[in-house]
Amino acid sequence: MTTPAKLSVEEILAKHPNAQRDHLIPILQEVQQAQGYLSEEAIIKIGEALKLSANKIFGVATFYNQFRFTPIGKFHIMLCRGTACHVKESQTILTALEELLQIKDGQTTSDGLFSIETVACMGACGLAPVVSINGEFYAQLTPSKLSAIIKKLREGK
């Protein structure tokens, strides 16, 4: 099975001929879906197409926490910080994760393997504390369980 080619910013914009300001959010979502994040280059191209300044687009995009401005890692780790996870010490998991990977929330390792993102709630309260790595859930985590998971991912690349 082959992976579909990622659309370029230009190809996405071509799907929205005569787009106006009200098309901005859907275009940003499509670009992020295709590219993994919103690059400065993409924001400039979108601005040119919609006749909006890059500053205006960046301002809109930063208002919504769904948008990223740096590439995510091969293994994108989403850590739940919802109430149940908080009570079950998800902060300890975040601290351990940041120490293991030597990055902070919202960052990607220099080798591009790992990125960390905290989210408000994953709706998996019974599994607390929980992380999702590329959509696969890891439940009732401890720092030692997390370390073993990271080690396994590094070895498997």
What this model shows, in words?
The protein is α+β, with helices and mostly antiparallel strands and 157 residues long. The chain folds into 2 domains: 9-63, NADH-quinone oxidoreductase subunit E (Arc Repressor Mutant, subunit A, Orthogonal Bundle), CATH 1.10.10; 75-156, Glutaredoxin, CATH 3.40.30. The chain is built from 7 helices and 4 strands; from the N terminus they run ααααβααβββα. It has helices at residues 9-14, 24-35, 40-50, 54-63, 83-87, 90-101, 143-156, and strands spanning 75-80, 114-119, 131-133, 136-138. It has a 4-stranded mixed beta sheet with strand order 2-1-3-4, with helices on one face. β3 and β4 form a beta hairpin. α2 (24-35) runs antiparallel to α3 (40-50) and α6 (90-101) runs parallel beside α7. It is elongated and about 55 Å long. The two termini are 20 Å apart. The relative contact order is 0.12. The mean pLDDT is 92.
